[in-house]
Design brief:
This is CDF family Co(II)/Ni(II) efflux transporter DmeF. The chain contains 8 helices and 3 strands; from the N terminus they run αααααααββαβ. α2 runs parallel beside α6, α5 packs antiparallel against α6 and α7 crosses α8.
């Protein structure tokens, strides 16, 4: 038996994203977001502002998302050619995202319970201090948007970096919840509607729940190897039938955020070569990075 070190891949299984510039920018935003998260959670707890506390926890959900993205960049690059991973390390981000989404959904539910209790039993709020901290959080969020803005739009012209795209939309959501917290605190201070603060706490928790649900759904689809849509499979079958080829078996699933794999068995009286079949498949699914075809002559 040959030594394992002599085994070589016939093609690359590096389906992760190797972009040092993007990784560094996500790290910068992660540290900015984490510092403000700690500040807002501490200030929200001390001042009694549920809206500020909710915004702090919401920023915490995105700090976790940024940390997962950073880990995905690093782990995928480190193990890009590790033969222990049959289809590369593209699912690392999905696995971490699924786990963190479950935990964050629990946090959001606890926030709703706390907010409802404060609606029923209003507490005094140190408005001035809470408003200052909320404004600082808004400024940092806006700065983070600008840090990620150019790369997010530039990716459309180069390659699909879904980690960067996710980070960009997370900071946009943080900016929105910061604005909600400021509005709630200003209304509470100058109009006297104290209930607006816990109400915005509930709104912030709902935002976290919706984000968590979306992440759970998207990541579980990848982790469970959910197939592509039936309409896509029918489109492939129709395209191959024009080449007098019948599909006997087909499996297409996602192996990383922007990469798919396909395994199929086809039969034809005059079969094409594998490269021609791959070309037909990639015209329909450009994200196919790994294709295995068994060709049988009828």
């Amino acid at each position: 038996m040959e030594n394992d070190s002599s085994i070589q891949w016939e093609h690359s299984h590096n389906f992760g994203i190797d972009n040092k510039l993007h990784e560094n920018k996500v790290k910068t935003v992660f540290w900015l977001t984490t510092v403000i998260m700690v500040l807002e959670i501490g200030a929200g707890t001390w001042s009694g502002s549920m809206a500020l506390l909710a915004d702090g926890w919401h920023m915490g959900t995105h700090s976790a998302a940024f940390l997962i993205a950073i880990f995905a960049y690093s782990y995928a690059k480190k193990h890009a050619n590790n033969k222990d991973f049959s289809f590369g390390t593209g699912k690392v981000n999905s696995l971490g995202g699924f786990a963190s989404a479950i935990a964050l959904a629990i946090v959001a539910l606890l926030m709703i319970v706390e907010s409802v209790q404060r609606l029923l039993e209003p507490q005094s709020i140190h408005f001035n201090e809470a408003i200052v901290v909320a404004i600082i959080g808004l400024v940092v969020n806006v700065a983070s948007v600008f840090i990620l803005h150019d790369d997010h739009h530039g990716e459309h012209h180069h390659h699909h970096d879904h980690n960067m795209k996710a980070a960009y939309f997370h900071v946009l959501a943080d900016t929105l919840t910061s604005l909600l917290a400021i509005v709630a605190l200003l209304v509470g201070k100058y109009v006297g509607l104290i209930w607006m603060d816990p109400l915005m706490g509930i709104v912030g928790a709902i935002v976290i729940l919706r984000w968590s649900y979306g992440l759970i759904k998207d990541s579980s689809n990848i982790l469970l190897d959910k197939s592509v849509k039936k309409s896509t499979l029918e489109q492939i079958s129709k395209a191959l039938s024009k080449k007098n080829t019948v599909i006997n078996d087909i499996h297409i699933w996602t192996i990383a955020t922007a990469h798919q794999a396909a395994i199929l068995k086809v039969t034809s009286a005059q079969p094409l070569n594998s490269d021609e079949y791959e070309g037909i498949l990639k015209e329909i699914l450009p994200q196919l990075s790994h294709i295995s075809i068994e060709i049988c002559r009828d």
